[in-house]
Design brief:
Blueprint lengths: L1 H13 L3 H21 L3 H31 L2 E7 L8 H5 L9 E5 L6 H16 L6 E6 L7 H16 L4 E6 L7 E4 L3 E5 L28 E7 L7
Helix pairs in contact: 1-2, 2-3, 5-6
């Protein structure tokens, strides 16, 4: 398993898919270290240790390369969520980037309109409140519901706004009729663009079906997630 994982790491490395390659190198190295512990043949141990040392050096080089890309504002990671895939709750996508220094968040999403989309946004806010970040301000830019649900949309957002206030978080709400892009930005420089915005989950089969409450268990629509890092996050 360790050899296969490292082989995959090398393939990803050659394809310049450095973030994925680094993960595979780290997993492969851990597996090979376990093999070394279980091997009694000293010659084999020596060969394994040599290879592990080579992989660790390469993993460290990749880590430095990724860090430089972040500093240069050139970092780009892409995640493809397949149709009906599970395991892609908001924590899965965002937690890695919600460091303790995050205090301000910008959400641009034209589809925070219907009840289930309001719940999506609420769950996203709940994740921010739980930390480990110390979010103080959330800026939401969305579009008005063009039908009869406009008052329900406004009431729902105002209720979320009031609830966040109880946790010391200010929700700034703005509307635009021309908004198209969907992106989420944190003031530590991370920007995440999801093809379908926050609304990439499928409707649950019923109110008492698995996945209704836990988004990690909810099947997804096919979409693409692009993650960037920039030195200066543009403010709305």
């Amino acid at each position: 398993a360790g050899a296969e994982t490292v082989k995959r790491a090398v393939e990803l490395d050659l394809a310049s898919r450095f973030q994925e390659s680094l993960v595979c190198y780290q997993e492969g190295i851990d597996l090979l270290l376990q093999v070394v512990k279980a091997t009694k043949d000293e010659a084999k141990k020596h060969r394994y240790r040599q290879k592990i040392s080579e992989y660790m050096t390469r993993a460290e080089d990749i880590k430095k390369h990724i860090e430089k890309e972040k500093q240069d504002g050139k970092y780009h990671k892409q995640i493809r969520i397949e149709e009906d895939a599970t395991g892609f709750g908001y924590e899965k996508l965002f937690q890695e980037y919600l460091t303790e220094i995050v205090s301000e968040v910008w959400v641009e999403d034209p589809y925070i309109r219907h009840v289930h989309q309001l719940y999506n946004f609420l769950r996203f806010c709940e994740m921010l409140v739980k930390g480990p970040c110390k979010v103080k301000t959330i800026h939401l830019l969305t579009s008005y519901d063009e039908g009869s649900g406009k008052s329900q949309q406004i009431n729902g957002l105002e209720e979320i706004q009031q609830s966040l206030r109880n946790y010391g978080v200010t929700l700034d709400i703005a509307f635009s009729s021309s908004i198209h892009d969907r992106e989420i930005r944190f003031n530590n420089g991370w920007m995440i663009k999801i093809g379908r915005g926050l609304d990439y989950f499928k409707k649950p089969q019923g109110r008492f079906s698995i996945g209704y409450c836990d988004f990690d268990l909810r099947p997804c629509h096919e979409t693409t997630v692009d993650v960037f890092h920039t030195k200066h996050t543009r403010k709305m």
